[in-house]
Description:
By secondary structure, the chain is an alpha/beta fold. 34% of the residues lie in helices and 25% in strands. It comes from Rossellomorea pakistanensis.
Amino acid sequence: MAKTVAVVLESSEVDPHRLSEGLRMSVGLVLGKHDVYVLLFDKAVLASLKEKPVFFEKYEMAKHINALIMLKRKVWVNRHSLSDLHPEAEKLKGVELKKQSEMLDVIASADVVIRYEVDAK
């Protein structure tokens, strides 16, 4: 039975490897025919940018995000987080900018919520 799954990726100090793994894991959830929402908060929003910081270069975040979008899943970025970090930045095609309240509504209504820890250790 398919479920609505909210994957929450948030971080105050991003470990790009862990962030990429969280996105890859989200693609894997699609195999279960689940309705997957990937929600990016705080510095995790950097994964959604067309031009990423230099230390993100060797990770395939865009590949995972593009796969989710191609498979008709949602990748949402917290509007407030993005405007704090990069107000003029261009997002990857298909990534949606959302208010925090809209993202919290998805979390509240999801059958399953997975908070993937992406902080640098």
